[in-house]
Automatic annotation (TrEMBL):
Protein name, as recorded: Endonuclease I family protein
One Pfam family, short name: Endonuclease_1
Keywords: Endonuclease, Hydrolase, Nuclease, Signal
Example of a GO MF term: endonuclease activity
The organism of origin for this protein: Streptomyces coeruleoprunus
Signal sequence bounds: 1-32
SUPFAM superfamilies per UniProt: His-Me finger endonucleases
InterPro entries, sorted: Endonuclease-I, His-Me_finger_sf
């Protein structure tokens, strides 16, 4: 059993310059990150994209921020569901072994060649459960790399379409995720990643283009409704597990190579609280 971790004092560090350096291509030179901002409570992060990509969002909050971000991130390329296999081999490559991908909930490093549907394979996990809105796998939310991750076939099946929440018993083969009858708790190292993926989906999909309006709520058992829970827990996870180099590189690769849009909550995790 795991127990909820108290909310941390919000103290966003500045992962930005490191993120820009990670991928030499897409990032313009980092704009001045003021010295001393690190450690400042509730300080907004500063990113290399604030004067360009996020220009229309800077300084906003609440629904105005959500709306501005929706406009910004909806300008994107889309890939087919079959192309997702190859893309995940790039976005989720093991930094210590270029032949492997890192599986989301288990943290296991597994050969890229073991993609497929059999026991021992990895497949394409929809972190925003596909059935929550029934959006299928044609190019759109069902193929959006910002919430697709490689996962062990068996673990993926155990997660199923459960909402995210604390609690349950340890899931075999993971380090260490938990589950009970109505929810799934990912391992600590990806709790924030999961939160930021779910909330990206909520901002990206607002009911246009024939897709459902995806939104977070504080429930479990959301079933086929276009909602995903639990928002209060996802907010805790966003603070508990801030973006790391792996998650930031992933965002850069999706932006630079595949979709040409970004997950704003990886760049600005404080925007979660600014909207919700
Ligand atoms: Ca539960
Ligand atoms: Ca993480
Ligand atoms: Ca939405």
């Amino acid at each position: 059993m795991s127990s909820p971790i108290p909310r941390f004092v919000r103290r966003w560090k500045i992962p930005v310059i490191a993120a820009a350096l990670l991928v030499g291509t897409a990032a313009p030179a980092a704009s001045a990150a003021p010295a001393g901002v690190e450690g400042a409570q509730t300080a907004a992060t500063v990113t290399a994209y604030d004067d360009t990509y996020y220009q229309g969002a800077i300084g906003k909050s609440g629904t105005a921020l959500k709306s501005a971000l929706h406009t910004i991130i909806s300008d994107q390329s889309k890939i087919s569901y079959s192309a997702v296999w190859e893309a995940l081999k790039v976005t989720d490559q093991d930094p210590n072994n270029t032949g492997n991908v890192i599986l989301l909930y288990s943290g296991v490093s597994r050969s890229k060649s073991l993609s497929g549907g059999n026991t021992g394979n990895w497949n394409r996990e929809h972190v925003w459960a596909q059935s929550h809105g029934d959006f299928g796998t044609s190019a759109g939310p069902g193929t959006d790399l910002h919430h697709l991750r490689p996962e062990d076939v068996t673990v993926n099946s155990i997660r199923g379409n459960k909402d995210f929440d604390w609690g349950g018993s340890a899931v075999s083969g993971t380090y260490t995720s938990y589950t009970d009858s109505n929810s799934f708790e990912p391992r600590n190292a990806v709790k924030g990643d999961v939160a930021r993926m779910i909330l990206y989906m909520a901002v990206r999909y607002e009911g246009g283009d024939g897709w459902p309006n995806l939104e977070p709520n504080d429930s479990v058992n959301n079933g086929s409704t276009p909602y995903h829970g639990r928002l209060s827990v996802l907010k805790q996870w966003n603070e508990q597990d801030p973006p790391d180099a792996f998650e930031q590189r992933r965002n850069e690769v999706i932006y630079g190579t595949y979709q040409h849009n970004r997950n704003p909550f990886i760049d600005h995790p404080e925007w979660v609280e600014a909207i919700w």
